[in-house]
């Protein structure tokens, strides 16, 4: 059976949602962030030296990195969530599944961190200017790609959506930038209407209670 070591308010939401969509039995072990530092508890290092989440255990092995976990679980348990290799959508699928953690998350996190600095009364002028330009470029690209689309690749839910959902929820809900990126905001609303997403968020919110 799959075991997910899940940290609240983290990329692990991708895996929690994927597991709910797959319908495979799994065990959920929950971890809570430190309320002061917002860091993961040291106990996660007992599972993997990086002490980060998501982490899954399966068949006596431990796997980290949300992109690797998404690709592995889909390939093994839910091939319906991945376009066929011969499909013209396969290259787009690969692009978007990796875009989520490479091109997208760097400017998103930088902008989030500069917001934290601003709230603390510190100004990082160069970093703020660079981050703003990269954020607008990358999120504008994603927003345009989502125009007139239900999902990011083809007409069905895929692993790329599980990866991009965390980008969307960070930008729209945590950073309050939905009005700037209406197609991304509408995309998140469509994902939020899925039963598996609702179940995953319910589990996530229970962790915060």
UniProtKB/TrEMBL annotation:
Residues 1-81 form the GST N-terminal domain. Pfam families: GST_C, GST_N. Its EC number is 2.5.1.18. Keywords: Transferase. The keyword Mitochondrion does not apply. GO terms for cellular component: cytoplasm. Residues 86-209 form the GST C-terminal domain. InterPro entries: Glutathione-S-Trfase_C-like, Glutathione-S-Trfase_C_sf, Glutathione_S-Trfase, Glutathione_S-Trfase_N, GST_C, Thioredoxin-like_sf. It is an enzyme of class 2 (transferase). It catalyses: RX + glutathione = an S-substituted glutathione + a halide anion + H(+). GO terms for molecular function: glutathione transferase activity; peroxidase activity. Belongs to the GST superfamily. This is glutathione transferase. It comes from Pseudomonas fragi. The lineage of its organism: Bacteria, Pseudomonadati, Pseudomonadota, Gammaproteobacteria, Pseudomonadales.
């Amino acid at each position: 059976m799959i075991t997910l070591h899940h940290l609240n308010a983290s990329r692990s939401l991708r895996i929690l949602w994927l597991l709910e969509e797959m319908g495979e039995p799994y065990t959920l072990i929950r971890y809570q962030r430190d309320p002061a530092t917002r860091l993961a508890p040291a106990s996660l290092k007992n599972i993997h030296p990086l002490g980060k989440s998501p982490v899954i255990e399966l068949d006596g092995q431990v796997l980290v990195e949300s992109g690797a976990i998404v690709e592995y679980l889909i390939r093994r348990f839910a091939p319906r969530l991945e376009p066929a290799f011969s499909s013209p959508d396969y290259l787009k699928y690969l692009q978007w599944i990796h875009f989520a953690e490479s091109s997208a998350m760097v400017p998103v996190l930088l902008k989030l961190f500069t917001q934290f600095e601003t709230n603390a009364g510190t100004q990082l002028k160069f970093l703020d200017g660079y981050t703003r330009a990269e954020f607008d470029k990358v999120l504008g690209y994603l927003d345009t790609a989502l125009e007139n689309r239900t999902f990011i690749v083809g007409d069905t839910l895929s692993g790329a959506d599980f990866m991009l959902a965390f980008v969307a929820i960070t930008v729209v809900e945590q950073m309050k930038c939905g009005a700037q990126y209406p197609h991304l905001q509408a995309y998140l609303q469509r994902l939020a209407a899925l039963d598996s997403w609702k179940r995953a968020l319910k589990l996530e919110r229970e962790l915060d209670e």
